[in-house]
């Protein structure tokens, strides 16, 4: 058996114009000498190759291997550099592999060097090491950099134990608010890679309005109801009490008004793209709303949601009575429903996602494995661990690690 002294560990770094056959040609040389590959990584940025191979070989043939690699690199018109690695350095590197891994997602309409610098400065302060960086959004033509619906996202994989995770999260949320971009911090566990259920609030999340406000406008009490709605979403008054007061003010409204409102709902940017991908990849989807089942069912039919739980308005002789049927779907009930659906679908709670904007969404955001405050009220953003405020609902796909190449 060979001892460490009879072995050499060599890191090969290759860079240059990318073209087919580079990796194949270089690894073929290593194969002829029966070299063992300990690590390998490759990336391509604007047709420029960056390839690294750490291999082990017998000292007696290491010179021959490097000579052949050097000649082949010249033939392939790429640059090659050799760095010896000591056994101690290698063992230290291996010893770090048991440390936690974190995924940091940075996204917005357009990312700048400042955004990357701010985030990576926090990573450095927390004594974490960046293992890899990858772009999740497609290549952006220069002519489209001012597109109001453009999206830009990069994902960092970092390793280590944060000095203070809460402080790290707080800094990310603050800089995201100040600089108008979004940052997500998630531990890279097996659950992050296999989410299975996603539950949405409806009003001001799936749609860009509060349906009860639309109904109130038709009933002639729009300003009064809107003021109560905004206060409730900010968490200033009890949701159930505000709900009763608002529904009572709709008494006498004709049922036909609901159909007209449903057919003209302002759909939130990115919902259609998000739902297409979630359906194709086997996610179960649910609407858990403090709004009304009539509109939830309309969205279910249009976009293919699996579940809808909301409040039922009482209608007699084609008119709203100002009352409702059954229990109110408030914040507590939303969290209960999330757990119930997860149980029915045999999904671990860590595999669930919740998305909402209001104070009554906080219980389900806290219950889910991944809770996302979407274009949320200040109180919700302050409380939730994840926030998406600069782009549409399809930004959630980047939080899940999807890349544009696979979702178009």
Task: Please provide a brief summary of the model.
The chain is of the alpha/beta class and 408 residues long.
Largest sheet: 7 strands, mixed
Query: What distance separates the N and C termini?
Result: 52 Å
Radius of gyration: 27 Å
Which second-level CATH architecture of the largest domain applies?
3-Layer(aba) Sandwich
Q: Which structural class is indicated by helix and strand composition?
A: alpha/beta
Query: What is the total tally of β strands?
Result: 15
Residue stretches low in confidence (pLDDT < 50, at least 5 long) are none
How do the strands and helices of this protein lay out in sequence?
Elements: E1 7-17, H1 22-32, E2 36-45, E3 48-58, H2 59-76, E4 78-85, H3 87-95, E5 101-108, H4 113-125, E6 129-135, E7 152-159, H5 165-179, E8 182-187, E9 197-200, H6 211-219, H7 222-233, H8 239-248, H9 256-263, H10 271-280, E10 284-292, H11 293-303, E11 307-316, E12 319-325, H12 331-344, E13 352-356, H13 362-367, E14 370-374, H14 378-383, E15 386-388, H15 396-399, H16 404-407
Parallel strand pairs: 9-10, 9-13, 10-11, 13-14, 14-15
Antiparallel strand pairs: 1-3, 1-4, 2-3, 5-7, 5-8, 6-7, 11-12
């Amino acid at each position: 058996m060979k001892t460490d002294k009879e072995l050499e560990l060599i890191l090969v770094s290759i860079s240059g114009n990318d073209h087919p056959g580079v990796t194949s040609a270089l690894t073929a040389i290593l194969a002829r000498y029966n070299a063992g590959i300990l690590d390998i990584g490759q990336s391509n940025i604007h047709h420029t190759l960056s390839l690294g191979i750490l291999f082990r070989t017998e000292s007696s043939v290491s010179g021959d291997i490097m000579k052949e690699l050097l000649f082949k690199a010249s033939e392939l018109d790429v640059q090659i550099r050799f760095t010896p690695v000591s056994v101690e350095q290698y063992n230290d590197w291996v010893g770090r592999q048991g440390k936690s891994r974190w995924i940091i997602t940075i996204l917005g309409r357009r990312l700048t060097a400042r955004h990357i610098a701010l985030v990576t400065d926090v990573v450095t302060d927390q004594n974490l090491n960046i293992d890899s960086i990858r772009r999740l959004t497609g290549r952006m033509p220069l002519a489209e950099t001012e597109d109001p619906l453009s999206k830009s996202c990069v994902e960092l994989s970092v390793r280590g134990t944060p000095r203070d995770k809460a402080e790290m999260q707080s800094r990310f949320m603050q800089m995201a608010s100040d600089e108008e971009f979004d940052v997500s911090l998630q531990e890279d566990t097996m659950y992050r890679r296999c989410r299975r259920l996603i539950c949405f609030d409806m009003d001001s999340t799936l749609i860009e309005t509060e349906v009860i406000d639309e109904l109130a406008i038709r009933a002639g009490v729009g300003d009064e109801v809107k003021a109560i709605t905004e206060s409730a979403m900010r968490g200033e008054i009890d949701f159930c009490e505000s709900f009763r007061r608002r529904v009572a003010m709709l008494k006498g409204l004709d049922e036909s008004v609901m159909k007209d409102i449903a057919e003209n709902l302002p759909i939130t940017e990115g919902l259609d793209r998000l739902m297409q991908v979630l359906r194709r990849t086997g996610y179960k989807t649910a609407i858990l709303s403090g709004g009304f089942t009539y509109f939830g069912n309309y969205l279910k039919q249009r976009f293919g949601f699996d579940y809808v739980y909301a409040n039922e308005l009482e209608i007699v002789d084609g008119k709203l009575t100002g009352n409702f049927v059954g229990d109110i779907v408030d914040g507590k009930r939303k969290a209960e429903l999330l757990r119930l659906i997860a149980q029915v679908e045999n999904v671990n709670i860590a595999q669930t996602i919740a998305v909402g904007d209001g104070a009554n969404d906080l219980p389900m955001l806290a219950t889910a494995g991944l809770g996302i405050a979407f274009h949320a009220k200040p109180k919700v953003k302050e409380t939730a661990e994840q926030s998406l405020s600069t782009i549409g609902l399809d930004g959630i796909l980047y939080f899940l690690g999807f890349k544009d190449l696979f979702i178009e």
